[in-house]
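Work Package 3 (structural annotation) set out to generate three-dimensional models for the target panel prioritized at the project kickoff. During this period the team completed the workflow that converts sequence records into discrete structure tokens, so that structures can be stored uniformly alongside our sequence database. As a representative example, we reproduce one entry of 402 residues exactly as it appears in the project archive.
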Amino acid sequence: MGADGMVQRAYKYRFYPTPGQENLLRRTIGCCRLVYNKALAARTEAWTARRESVSYNQTSTMLTGWKKTEELAFLREVSSVALQQSLRHLQAAFSNFFDGTADYPRFKKKSRGGAATFVRSAFTWDGRTLRLAKMDKPLDIHWSRPLPDGAYPVNVTISLDSAGRWHVSILVEEHVTALPKAEGKVGVDMGVQSFATLSTGEKIDNPGLRKRNAKRLGKAQRDLARKRKGSNNHRRAMLKAARIQARIADRRKDFLHKLSTRIVRENQTVVIEDLAVKNMSRRCKPETDPANPGHYLSNGQTAKRALNRGITDAGWRMFRTMLEYKAAWYGRDIVVIDRWYPSSQICSTCGKNTGRKPLNVRAWTCPHCHTTHDRDVNAAKNILAAGLAVNVCGDQRKHHNN
């Protein structure tokens, strides 16, 4: 966020294109995907074969050459701005990879929909309607909420999801006013049975959206598996399964937005753990039974798979991201403590480390001070205490340096 409180914020809406607009948008998205994949293949081949690094400018030159070939002449039929932006997205993906914040870029698939980004030179906005390059009519946007007064889009991203829905994401700059100082400080312990437990003792239930829709989703996926790939029946079955998954994702995002906003509004300091969600939800290898070589222990494997599904269904990573950017907007503090901090082992009353406890132990009594603890509430209290200690030490170092 800028010093003057200006932030870039995206507003996402559904829109309903005419047949002509949909035809053009599908071709644009397809061309963006093609350019992205060809540039990714060229950069990968240059490095693996010759140890050469290919820059964004070099891929832009490649794009100019591709347009001049007879085979790829259709690239000239869509907005050149959108094609250039796909190359910029690839460059950003490589930058994140080299920074260690993301995996190596992957090829885009048609089955997952797609997107195309337009900057100001490729659209017109009159305060009420949005018209993209090469279109004679504005988009029919369902304005579920208004844009900020006087805001002019920085860029516009058109996306088609796997459920066949069209969305437009409008990025604008707006002034965000920090919230008044709050007295609250809270530690948050993430879980599966309870989505989050707060140091205040409050437990937020996990909506379990995938579990609640497992029967419908499982039937749709079994129907899809029986269809011949490439057939119309396969496409219809794939769309049906994708719509169920999209509904689950929408409800999860709505739940996370409401909860993160409430926590940020009520508390000046929020302390969370630095959870390695990717490692925690990684598929494990089947364990062999030592008494019967060649046989596998199915119970532990089944429990691990159930835990993995619970973690991925909860959306911990998305929740942390929401907390961080909303805290930055509204003048709150987010403190992240080390993932190896033994929050479940320490007694929050006397501070003694009582050792590791199996996950099925949900309540325990401290052998030193004889205080009975709820496992999750105790962990949340320890997370808050550790975070406040880190915050105080950081403030002291800052003042010392000054």
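The CA atoms of residues 350 and 369 lie 6 Å apart.
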